[in-house]
What we know:
This protein has 754 residues and is of the alpha+beta class. The strands form eight sheets. Strands 8, 9, 10, 11, 13, 14, 16, 17, 21 and 22 form a ten-stranded antiparallel sheet that branches. A seven-stranded parallel sheet has the order 30-29-28-25-24-23-31. Helix 7 (452-469) packs parallel to helix 8 and helix 10 (550-560) packs parallel to helix 11 (587-594). The two termini are 42 Å apart.
Amino acid sequence: MIEALSKSIFHLSTDNTSYIIRILETGHAEHIYYGKRLRDVLSSVSAMGEKRYVRPGMGTYTDRTFTTLVLDDTLLEFSTEGRGDYKTPFAAISAGKDGERTLNLKYAGSEIAEGIRAIRGLPMPQAADPYNEAQTLSLVFLDSERHVELTLVYTVFPSSDTITRRGIIRNTGEDRLTIRALASAQLDFRETGMEAITLSGTWGREFERHTTPIKTGTFISESRKLGSSAEANPGVMLTRKDGSALALNLIYSGPHRLSASVTEHGMTHIVWGINPDMFSWILESGESFESPEAVITFSENGIETAGDRIKHFITASVLRSHWKDRMRPLMLDTWEALRYSTTENRIEALAKGAEEMGCEGVLINDGWFGARSSDRTSLGDWHVNTQKMPSGLTELADSIHRRGLLFGLWFEPEAVSVKSMLYKAHPEWIIGRSGEDNAEGRHEELLDITRYDVQDWIVTTIVKLANLVRLDYLRWDMNRHYSDLYTLTGIRDYGMYAHEYASSLYRILSQIGERCPEMYIETSASGGSRFDLGMLSVSASITPSCISDPIERARMLANATLMYPQSVIGTVVSPSPNAATRRIVDRETRFNIAAFGVLSYSLDPSSFSRSELKAFKEQIEFYKAFRLLFETGRFRVIENSNRIIWSVSNEDRSTIMVLYLQKMIRPNTTAERIIIPDANESYDYRIFSRSHTIPEREVYAYPEETECYEMPGDALKWAGISMVEQISGIGHHEGMRMLGDFSSRLYIIRRKEK
């Protein structure tokens, strides 16, 4: 809830947090506190607020009647340039004909309203209010000399313990105004010693977890590409010396930046939003611009609880899909089996195998359209290749539907091949001056989707085809970064392009979703190059990587679930050896890892032996029996070393699934123990392992061990289970565990009924 405790003090509270703002006598917005919920804010503000008896050092005071107020040494809700605040600005402008940069914004009023305040202007996703509990505070600040108005918008989601923030700049004068920076949120703390946990990486190595101390100077995590990028995911966790944590994110799919610095006065200053190096925005008289929504949550109990809160918020307020509250479909992806050799007969064989396995749909990946036989041709020619599929796409879709399976197709709608009918017809539709002379990425060019004719063509093409074949599942991919930025749209400033591109993408996907409301939309961008809350606003799940190696995927999944629920993370069981890493991983381990997310298979079931088909069928039966737990349960990384242990538990902790994954076997190991922190101390549990199969050709095929225990929840939580020893030397006894390199077990823990 939001309370105006006086004309100058605002308290934003959720179920467990408090956020306090004070308007100073000078008209500046002071940040007083963000943290655990306080019970009596009004009587505390005077003691909590900073006193300012003297001006610090060489500080420049902004108001001659308050000569001890130095903005550079003040905890603020936003920083600007030109009035003695030298921190990274929240907002920066060039005003008038001479491009003046000073901003002197003073408080002009506030409004508290029920619900959310809709973003106006360009299409831009924002958090929804599913529980009808949200409230919004708008604080207005005015620079009357330069005719600039800034509105700070705060929306409180009490049960998610989450606050969203954004800024709005309006040109109230007659002259043109250029916004050089407008962030989404700023947080100032009178403390040091904080650390930033980021999820950065690159193609194939998405979601690498890095912990960086925030020290004197500036730490930056940013994307400088048209997408949010695999190099710097927008989700960031901040930890404090007292063990508390803040989870920060951005509902945005474009270039972004988080800047974290420690000032010379011992203040930690955090600003995040659109990357200002990739942005500028021209405002004519009366025009305004709104930044994307930032997401903020806090927990005094550390990163796990902060992560739980932001994941609850994503599930409740970010996801919009028709599939939001449904179990995700289990698809067979044709890529690993067929690559570009996508023919009617081979797809029919895969569909037959998918049905026998228990899959729920078939996703026809690349190679079904135009003259596509490699990645050098035919992107944009979204009509069926009748040489590969002589009966046509409609007949193939009908055949798959008759098996009771969903029908899915892969598209890369943002790209075009120079060797394509589309490029020959519309060379002016690409980004850049010439497809033949542009810098090349993956043998393709990007379409200029900021053009309305391109947007309409993409929407019409996909919707028409979706209706024709009764398309159930759409995978939207994008496989190159921009270069040679040039457009024929008559853009006023190229600094506006990246944001317009993101907005155009939302418009396209939103229209497709509205016209095909029951169709499942999964997004990808060379895997995880656009894994963000903006895309989750217009899709049901995201592929985290093009790399399907299960050990790499285990690392990605464990790190991604720090900030994102596993119900939005696509997982896959693929062949071994893996096509990218050549790593050999046993069949059961490939499943055991992939089960903790939105499961799919990318295999060739037509090549399975009877025993292989039986094993994969049993995996899918097991997954379906526990799908609700795997997709929506509380995920925990208990241990992450050579021995990886995960758990996922339901709300009342009556069922817990545990993954035990061993990277490398070591000789001469003895007893080992597993402790389950999420066990309910008042329950009694039964613990047993999932039955697994070892391929007959593996030379170490010892009989399957059987472990089964019964114990009270408090013992399971605090003392743990001493597991049966592994075979790791010269001795062997029946019943011992046999785990090789990259091997695993799943353990089911269930409450015993009295």
